[in-house]
Amino acid sequence: MSEKKPFYITTPIFYPNAKLHLGHAYTTTLSDIIARYHRLVGDHVYFLTGSDENTQKMVDSAVKEGKEPLVFLDGIVENFASLYKGLDISYDQFIRTTDQKKHWPGAQALWQKLVAAGDIYKKAYEGLYCVGHEAFITEKDLVDGKCPDHGTVPEFIKEENYFFRLSKYAPQIQEKIETDEFRIVPESRKHEILSFIQNEGLEDVSFSRPRKAAWPQGLGIPVPGDDSQVMYVWCDALANYVTALGYGQDEVLYKEFWPANVHVIGKDILRFHAAIWPGMLLSAGVPLPKSLLVHGFITSGGKKMSKTLGNIIDPEELIEEYGGEAVRYFLARHITPFEDGDITRESFKEIYNANLANGLGNLSARIMTLAEKHLDVGTRPEPAGFEEEYTHALESFEVHKALDFVFTKVQALDRTITETEPFKLIKTEPEQAKKIIFDLTQELYSIARMLNPFMPETSEKIKAAVVANKKPENLFARKD
Ligand code: ME8
């Protein structure tokens, strides 16, 4: 066990039925910033991400492309990896739920705990199943007979399934959320789930499906003791947060890192994470995660990104043109995590030019050109702690506020240069001018340190330039 404070952070495991878009990139980047911040302040961080593979919609997509599902999956997972490389995502593990060595036995061990608690029972069931949601939906959710989110007609399903006794845990879940023992951030999402539990209650959930003969061998985790059934995909998927740590098997990581400090998710999957997941954990006698960070949705031009509207922004295209660091910057500063946020190619370009190319990039070049010319040696500033405003923002997941704080410093330095004109002063008062330039380099170094979680490469380049007393290489050179 490490002496450092453990910090376990997770992203949702995304469905690999299509390429990831900017919304997925947002969740992962936000998580990465929080992970990097905790490493920076000395915590022992474990950062988990992955893919949710045992799903009908994945099989449907594979069939559409005429590929074997498992071959199709490998291709998509490669796309996840290349996007994460482009965004410099510092994950420690990528879990795939088709992993039969670690994930399956772990999920089965968890299932058996629910059985032992008397919380799994068999029931004949009929209902409407939306493949897009991977969940049952009710008649009253439909618009013109279709699921309003996916525009598809749900399947009518009549079968015998295993159910999970979620209703039993409603009072306990409610209490843990109310008291912040299981903290839901922001408050508005906490109220949303609490009023859902109060008004509608929590019903038992269908937790298995009959194995489909057509599915490729292996798809879906067999229900322990009943091979004719596979686990419901959300039961399987949620388990990833503990199976990745070796739950039920080799528990070294599990012992150090569970309970998770934070699961980062989008608002669409709040109920699964704030009701079903804590219910499963309570039933299994496993501690609940400490917090759930629920962010809003990214829209483009005020509208949900969609193929038909033609407003999908492919994160890889942005990375190709502007670099991963600029994309990270935009997502961190110009999207507020607790609300929906908008991006268009135009707004991205404008902000890139104003704040990065002409802002931070220009400032670093100006200061270091002066330093290179007038100071004898570079300096290695003593690492100091971080200012309260910065740490507070990051501890409370308000990453945009932390970056606002850093950029206020960027502007302040720009002003200092304009007001003191060290490039002129050097001719009349060289010592005073050198002192000003020296102080500017120290401030720049401190800005670079604070940029580490947001733009790790830019942060390193600026720090190295200050230490070497040299103008940094072109920081924000856009490829047209
Ligand atoms: O729900 N803006 O996977 P998924 C911001 N496999 N974030 C967005 C977004 C948008 N427009 N669109 C998607 C699943 N997201 C399950 C998760 S976890 C045990 C299982 C992000 O591929 C956001 O994080 O549909 C959202 O919650 C997630 O992608 C949904 O990903």
> What is the class of the largest domain in the CATH system?
Alpha Beta
CATH fold-level topology of the largest domain: Rossmann fold
DSSP strand (E) fraction? Answer: 15-25%
Helicity, in percent? 40-55%
Tertiary shape: elongated
Enumerate how many helices there are, as a single number: 18
CATH architectural designation of the largest domain = 3-Layer(aba) Sandwich
Fold and architecture overview:
A hairpin with a 2-residue loop joins strand 14 (298-300) and strand 15 (303-304). The protein is α/β, with parallel strands linked by helices and 480 residues long. The protein contains 18 helices and 16 strands. Helix 11 crosses helix 12 (324-334). The chain folds into two domains: 6-296, 3-Layer(aba) Sandwich (Rossmann fold), CATH 3.40.50; 344-468, Isoleucyl-tRNA Synthetase, Domain 1 (Orthogonal Bundle). The site of ligand ME8 has 19 residues, from strand 1, helix 1, helix 7 and strand 12.
